[in-house]
Queue: 2 jobs
Job 1
Amino acid sequence: MWRNWSGCESSEAAVVAPRTIEQLREVLAAPDKVLRPVGAGHSFTPLVSGGGRILDLSQINTPTVLTSAPGRARVSANARLHDLSAALQAKGQGFRNLGDINVQTLAGAMSTATHGTGRDLPSIAAEMTGARLLSGSGELVEIAAEDLPGVQVGLGLLGILLEIELNTVPAFNLRRRVGVRPFEVLLEQMHGNWSAHRCFEFFLLPHSGKGVQISHDVTEAAPSKPPLDLDALGLQVMKVASALRHLHPKAQRGVLALMLKLQGEEDYVGESWRVLSSTRAMRFNEMEYHLPPDVAEPVLRDIIALIERRHPDVWFPIEVRQTAGDTAWLSPFQHGRRVSVAVHMHGGQDYTGFFHDCEAIFRSAGGRPHWGKLHSLQRRDLEDLYPDLGKFDALRARLDPKDRFLSPALARMFRP
């Protein structure tokens, strides 16, 4: 049985792993089975499950980097981000920006509009300048410029991405600074910090009154010794502190206060891709909505109040980032910057009630969901949020006329 990374999605569909494009065509030629491609399985939504077969593309032997020139590279769509980052670094190039996690495939990250943080830095999908895919009819298609905004964020509905051309930048080093700040300081200074730093984000720690801010700025300094990775240890302490709340509410706050007192200021320089992204050891489930920047502060105050009032068992940090706008038809960042607010619950906890209440707050503020993270949107919701949905429908009808990639869950959103 296939399961996603967090375990919230599963499927008993057969997993097929073609080794060549011809074998992939043979899989496509088999009738009456909906096919869903799988990458790292890091999406929490049913993007892989629900079909008749799951396509594992990891066995197709394609060089990680096919061609490269200053500012541009053509790469294997199904290479993992950490492998691509290392291969580009070896050529003196790099991604402009990356998200928190480095194990996804490039195709998966782009297809779901995965993003990092930075007021003037777009999502990874916006860096796509060209692509080759195998359509639902088994044709190799080089994507035309006018169709690119549909393919940049395509959710695996348009075909099997094989090669992607993308913007790159000269390899660079980043200085990361990490520090603990009170809630009020983080909220009051967030927009100023996004203007002051290349990358800025913060994590609000429920029941502590504080959070952790992280900034990244370009530096000519040489890489320094990497600090100890205390993220996993910190999450374990927060989990234990939450359990202690059942003995006495003050116990949780006391443990969190001690943990944050021991958290020192971090100052570290490294190659950009090593500083920006890592793996995640602790399993969790996540909902993330992208909001107009001017509503971020009231939404964050509402979420914190919601945890204190109705969901005291929530202890996972709330992550807050900002991403520049782009032009992809299904991008949640289309036509303007958005502040992204991500709520999480530990993999062993029931997240349904908390996420349901959070989603009501996000939706009332005009939020658009991350495609790979939990949400409940249906077709009528997408029609209100995505003005170019009709263009995407027309492109999907042309590239996948027999709905080979349209699972029942996706049909509820993408069948006109």
Job 2
Amino acid sequence: MKRLFFSLFTLVVLFGAITATQSRLTSVVGTAPKPQSMAYLPSSERVKPLMIGYHETFSHYLWIRTVIYFGSQMMSERELPWLIQMLDIITRLHPHFFPAYEFAGLLVPDLCGDPDAARVIMERGMIHLGETRWNIPFILGMLYYRYYDDYEMAARYFSLASRIPGPHSQRLATLSATFFHRSGRGTEGLELLLLLYETSDNPEVRRHLGEKIEELVEELKG
């Protein structure tokens, strides 16, 4: 009973702290200097043990606040000093919450200038959603391509994305094969295309993959 009371009390305190902070943020929008809007936001290591049984509830609340915070900052000074920490907490509390990963993978590298933080959060997404959401390995592949200039790692993540059944599997497989070829591992790209060709029952998909296989074979010969 004491444990339940303590959990409820902690939840109320955290909700209140963040709400108060956000209210203060809203009240001073347009004035200078800007406050540190999430200065009261505790670290993810402190929050998770306290949210016994309320992880998803708090993560949803924090997600709404994150979207509001993002919109507010983008309409003002366009600085997002708390975005990474907010997304980190959300994905730790609710590791299957895809929108937070998409936000991290697509916005944090450019707007926060921190591709490493985005990669770490996306790697958490790979653990929990990597076998069901093609977007997770695809975004990771793009991170390796754009920010680390690592074609081989990009190809491997594109390959993982292509193996998740969906309307984009064919294009992802072609993309993966292209990146394997660019990284000097064209044989692996060819094997991926052959695997998809042999396992597909769709004649259009087989025709497209067959053309790509022929093109890659010719390139490897050259």
